Amino acid sequence: MNSKLLLVMAIFVASAMVIMAESSRSQKTTHHQELTETNLKIIKRSEWNAAKPIDKSPLNSSVPYVIVHHSASPPACYTRLACQNALRSMQRTHQLVNGWDDIGYNFLIGADDDGDGEIYEGRGFGVKGAHAPGYNYRSIGICLIGNWSESVPPQGMLDKMKQLINYGVEKGHIQRNYRLHGHRQVKATECPGKALQAEIEKWEHFRRASRATKR
Ligand SMILES: [Zn+2]
After folding, report:
1. What are the sequence ranges of the domains in the chain?
2. How far does residue 34's CA lie from ligand 1's centre (Å)?
3. Distance, CA 69 to ligand 1 centroid (Å)?
4. Which CATH superfamily is domain 42-200 in?
5. Per residue in 42-89, pLDDT tens?
6. Residue pLDDT, tens place only, 18-50
7. Cα dihedral sign, 34-35-41-46
């Protein structure tokens, strides 16, 4: 065997190994996307032209609860522009009408790109929200923009919510054994809508009642 042939064979074997590694990695990403999401795309406040927060209170580094909400109104937004408008409108209401420091939720999810979903930064991690009295100082509040009483949100939005929660766990903002609640479980409200509530009740971390005492 001459050296040229050896070189060609070596290149062939090396490329085959690279291709195999790539394909196994992409399979892993598909199957374990929720657990390996390290570079989650989150649309920053500056990208939706958020107004400045009036004030900020820090949140415990690792919270035991995730509380799910819907906006009811504004309705679901299916384009970036519509979602940005929905976010700004909610922020205006929360700051100017409710008198809160900022948009109430830590994160919001829109149905951008026909349901693929995008994650928007509200108050973000590490900042106390205003979305569930008694739980604000120990939870992350996520709002799925739209009214999800009659229909479940598009799968893309649900996937984004799972990825966001797992990202929060991975980065230490949410406890590993967190409890998932719909807003209606901690307050007399329709939120997050009957259909969305029924959906999250099937999720692994959903807990029917909170054992911790309300404060
Ligand atoms: Zn709510």
Report:
1. 3-31, 42-200
2. 24
3. 4
4. Peptidoglycan recognition protein-like (3.40.80.10)
5. 999 999 999 999 999 999 789 999 999 999 999 999 999 999 999 999
6. 555 555 444 444 444 444 456 799 999 999 999
7. positive
